[in-house]
Amino acid sequence: MSSTTPPTTFSLSNLSLKLDTAAHLTPHITPLLTTPPPPITTLLLNGNTLGVPACEALAPLLRSLPTLQTANLADIFTSRLLAEIPPALSALLTALLACPALHTVDLSDNAFGLNTVAPLVAFLKAHVPLRHLVLNNNGLGPHAGALIADALEELAARKEDARRAGREVPDLETIVCGRNRLESGSMAAWAKALRRHPGVRVVRMTQNGIRQEGIATLLREGLRGCEGLEVLDLQDNTFTMVGSRALAGVVGGWKGLRELGVGDCLLGGKGSVLVFGALARGGNKGLRTLRVQFDEVDARGLGELVRAVKGGSLEGLRRVELNGNRFAEDDERVVELREVLEERREAAGEEEGEEWGIDELEDMESEEDEDEEDEDDEKDREEDAEEEEREMKASSMLKVADQEEDAPVAEKNDAEVDELADALQKTI
After folding, report:
1. DSSP-derived secondary structure for 242-257
2. What is residue 385's predicted lDDT score, i.e. its pLDDT?
3. Closest by alpha carbon to 70, among 41, 92, 45, 91?
4. For residue 58, which of 86, 84, 83, 33 has the smallest C-alpha distance?
5. Which residues does 335 contact at the CB level (< 8 Å), separation at least 6?
6. Cα–Cα dist 16/312, whole Å
7. C-alpha dihedral over 124, 105, 95, 83, to 10 degrees?
8. CA–CA separation, 286 and 288 (whole Å)
9. For 367-412, what is each residue's pLDDT tens digit?
């Protein structure tokens, strides 16, 4: 460990070590070998590659860390065979189940497809102290993603059981699951999971290939009930009018929302008017950061946003990201918005920075002329009926998912996961 590492942190972070066996591991973990064990609160193993024997050797040491609060296990299986990952992961997570203070787990940049996800699912079902879960770039896909969501739904039940037994149990507060190809097919499961965790404060599910019907299901059937939500980042998915209307219908319920990221989500001109109009109703006065870049926002949408800001409905807004939309860089409403945000920064006595103002408008599309806008309005009206039908499909996705729960593949995976979960519990 570095001489600058705090005494409560054990770190092998980003050392690019290839630890195949216990012999390879031992020289690097001498601080963990003392009796009694050190009062470690943070474990950083990220950026190395661990084999099955090394993980099995490390497991009893992890089990002996009752003060451990944060475990960073990101990118620890690079170059490992697919068959190595489940037993290695199981050894580590089984040990971590015995750490009663462990509330934050980061397993990003590891391959957890359908064939390797079972140990993680079993851990998530059972680890009642969990508060913050980070899973970025794991290659889950919709089926494994749905299994993760189902595990979090079971975790909610375990937390409730523990509370009834008189234990102090934290809410699940953070879910980060980006770049995982969750797609619309897993959104019914995620909506059910989020409905069971109303205390969630941060949700980041960027770049998951979720289309509008899935977005609508996630928002209406899941996130609507998370009234304490502070950060929602769904960038680089697809909203269109269906998702925009769903967001407009629920955003006002998140009174403590500080950050909303829906950039590169194809809100469209009319969709942006709906979303900004909802923000103008005054339910999100604490919103500080709004990301709507590359969303096909036109001059009408921009005007609705400026109206909300100048009217006091978004009195806490500091930062707006607008690059890549369909209005001129020198549009008078851009100037108005920039001036309002600058006045707020000066009133707060803070320096210029990325937390304030408008981003650089370097990739703006050409402004549409009046005739084109009129044609778009007519097309919007013609498409309303189709959009309503899509919304009905979105709202029925939960029912469809329930009917598909008995599919043979799902049964097989659920049985395997339940068996592993039982085995993990017996080892504690």
Report:
1. HHHHHHHHHGGG-TT-
2. 47
3. 41
4. 33
5. none
6. 51
7. 80
8. 6
9. 554 445 445 554 554 455 455 555 555 445 444 444 444 344 343 4
pLDDT tens profile 79-93: 999 999 999 999 999
Q: 19 CB contacts (<8 Å, ≥6 apart)?
A: 25, 28, 48, 49, 50, 51, 54
Q: What is the DSSP letter of 233?
A: E
Q: Give tens-digit pLDDT for 126-164.
A: 999 999 999 999 999 999 999 999 999 999 999 999 999
The phi-psi region of residue 47 (left if phi > 0; otherwise alpha if psi is between -120 and 50; otherwise beta) is left
Which helix (H) or strand (E) segment holds residue 63: the answer is helix 52-63
pTM of this prediction? 0.88
d(CA 427, CA 246): 45
Q: Which residues, other chains included, contact 352 with Cβ-Cβ below 8 Å and sequence gap of 6+?
A: 345
Nearest-5° angle of CA 411, CA 413, CA 417? 115
SS3 116: coil
Distance CA 53, CA 97 (A): 19
Q: Considering only CA atoms, which of 101, 79, 86 is closest in space to residue 420?
A: 86
> 133 forms bridges with which residues in the sheet?
105, 175
